[in-house]
């Protein structure tokens, strides 16, 4: 009665159990379902049930179990078209009442979903490793550029911490979007609002709110940070009534489409045309455009700092990505 109930319970699972004789011919199969084993396996061998390397692997493991009389476990894969299924197979020797070895007894349990989750996790970990290395490279570059243009250690620490905070803020948006990137509008609010005394009331953004790639998100965020810090220290965000206009538009250059992002300050302190850069010109003119594969131009206009960045269409989507 107990054995009957156990078999009845087993029938509601995805586990198949089987027995083979010493010649590895199937004696019986219970609960085959749609697994690699079928009711027709009775009297057949693995060479007849399976194919190619899969059959060779199964036979080799089972013969080793018979020889060593020790249990074994292996994974069996079946491919049909583009679909692959995985099974966890466990085998041990089958003994008679006199404790003699009469064959093999085993079980098979489908683990396809588990394997797919494992593959997904491995892909995510590889992507995380790749992005982490990119982020470390950005930090190393920023540290070098910041040190090169800092006179004292305290000055270096203030600038470097600000840039790291900028990276962190942009990365938060990218992570919240499942690593797909960030929308331009959110980056502008995140990177600029904190430096404007009157918040976004001093900042106007017009144009398409594109969805930037993860790489572009980090570097455009850095550019916005450098511009905002300078504007809050010396430019239009340092005085009451000062404003910043941020515009985006699509342009075509040599048959390639770009997003042109423009920063223009107004109603701030008058800027001398021959004024030396007092902020991250290396980040704005070299690091950011080189990282996104675009171009940049920084101008010291009398009415305020002007910055233009061309971002190739490979680095953005015209609408937010959906899951």
Q: What's the topology here?
A:
Elements: H1 2-10, E1 15-21, E2 26-30, H2 46-49, H3 52-68, E3 72-80, E4 83-95, E5 101-110, H4 112-148, H5 153-176, E6 182-183, H6 184-192, E7 203-206, E8 211-212, H7 214-233, E9 243-253, E10 256-266, H8 281-292, E11 295-301, E12 304-312, E13 316-317
Parallel strand pairs: 7-9
Antiparallel strand pairs: 1-2, 1-5, 3-4, 4-5, 6-8, 8-13, 9-10, 10-12, 11-12
Helix pairs in contact: 4-5, 5-6, 5-7, 6-7, 7-8
Please give a quick description of this structure.
The protein has 323 residues and is of the alpha+beta class. It has helices at 2-10, 46-49, 52-68, 112-148, 153-176, 184-192, 214-233, 281-292, and strands at residues 15-21, 26-30, 72-80, 83-95, 101-110, 182-183, 203-206, 211-212, 243-253, 256-266, 295-301, 304-312, 316-317.
């Amino acid at each position: 009665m107990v054995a009957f109930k156990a078999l009845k319970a087993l029938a509601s699972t995805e586990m198949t159990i089987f027995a083979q004789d010493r010649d590895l011919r199937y004696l019986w199969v219970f609960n085959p379902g749609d697994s690699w084993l079928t009711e027709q396996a009775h009297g057949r061998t693995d060479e007849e049930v399976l194919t190619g390397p899969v059959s060779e692997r199964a036979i080799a493991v089972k013969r080793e179990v018979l020889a060593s009389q020790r249990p074994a476990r292996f994974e069996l894969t079946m491919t049909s078209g583009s679909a692959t299924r995985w099974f966890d197979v466990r085998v041990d020797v089958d003994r008679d009442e006199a404790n003699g070895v009469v064959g093999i007894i085993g079980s098979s349990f489908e683990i396809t979903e588990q394997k797919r989750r494992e593959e997904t996790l491995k892909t995510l970990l590889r992507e995380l490793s790749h992005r982490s290395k990119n982020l470390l490279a950005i930090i190393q570059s920023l540290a070098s550029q910041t040190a090169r243009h800092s006179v004292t250690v305290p000055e270096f620490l203030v600038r470097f911490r600000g840039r790291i905070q900028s990276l962190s803020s942009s990365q938060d948006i990218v992570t919240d979007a499942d690593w797909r990137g960030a929308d331009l509008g959110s980056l502008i609010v995140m990177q600029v609002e904190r430096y404007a005394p009157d918040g976004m009331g001093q900042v106007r953004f017009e144009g398409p709110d594109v969805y930037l790639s993860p790489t572009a998100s980090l570097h455009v965020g850095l550019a916005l940070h450098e511009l905002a810090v300078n504007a809050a220290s010396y430019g239009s965000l340092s005085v009451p009534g000062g404003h910043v206009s941020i515009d985006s538009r699509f342009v075509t250059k040599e048959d390639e489409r770009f997003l042109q992002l423009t920063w223009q300050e107004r109603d701030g302190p008058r800027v001398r045309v021959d004024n030396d850069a007092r902020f991250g010109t290396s980040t704005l003119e070299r690091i950011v455009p080189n990282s996104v594969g675009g171009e940049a131009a920084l101008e010291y206009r009398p009415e305020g700092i002007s910055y233009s960045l061309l971002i190739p269409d490979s680095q953005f989507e015209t609408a937010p990505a959906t899951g």
